[in-house]
Amino acid sequence: MYKKLLCVLLLAFSISACKKNNNKPACELQACTAMFAYLGIVYNNHNGDAAQVKDVTIVNLRTGKTIIPPSYPPAASFVAGFVLIASDGTKDEFSAEGDDVRITATSVTTGQVNTTILKISNGCNCHVTKVSGPETVTFD
């Protein structure tokens, strides 16, 4: 009788251990590097040439908070049409799982407004990373 009860209790504990684990073991064991990551998006016109944009807004859809774009690093060159969206300096704005972020920009040439969604993670609080979304956005 005691053996059956012990087996039932052991089975119950085993099953309860299979529930979803909310901890992020990879984050707990992660070692960060000294690099400083940047994340951006490239805007092109319908010909594939770099497009100048204005009125760029970045909103974290999880928090509803508008994110101030990071400053461009000194002595660094980016491709034409590149807009800096996030960096390791702004990684605290994002969760480890990744947040949907709405980027809205207006073409200087045509006045067209484009809205794009990227999913951005804080990389377990080490380096900002893009989880999903386009590398390049093209205005019509």
TrEMBL record:
Signal peptide: 1-19
Keywords attached to this entry: Signal
Entry protein name: Uncharacterized protein
Native source organism of the sequence: Mucilaginibacter aquariorum
